[in-house]
Please model this.
Amino acid sequence: MTINENYDGEVSSEQQAMIDVLNDAIDPSQSDVVVFLTDHDSEASHQSLAGDFQTQILDIDDIKRYGDGDFATPAGTVAHEIAEQTEKQRNGITSKNGFECCHTAGIIAENAVNGSSRINRSSGLKRSGGSINGKPLYSGTLKQQYSRGGMIKTILNKVVNNNIQQQ
Ligand SMILES: [Zn+2]
Model:
């Protein structure tokens, strides 16, 4: 796969950031980056809240619903998950222990694509009992703050068993 490099229009810095994340992931001179996609019709969607570090599953329905479309966008979340997996897979990280550095790479990509800064994670999720393929199920209100130009916005997404609900 290649990205169309013949387009001669202007791209915003956020669009360029997305192109950079994708170009890095598909760079033919480096090893492949593999992700799996699911929607909410499958059991796998309950293993992944937007993206699952270990199984490399991206839940497209979660991603579509995440954020506010302004400070936090689906494109930003896709960039986060792909940059995180690129970092993980190219460095041969297989355990949970490597999560933090890969997650940081994900946040850097997410911020560049959103044009905002993700602040902290004050989750708001609780174990709702049970698990799918060893993944504990979480429900509650996912709370995440973003800032841009001195403005802080708190974004809330309702989650049931690792699936983000329609607003
Ligand atoms: Zn992450």
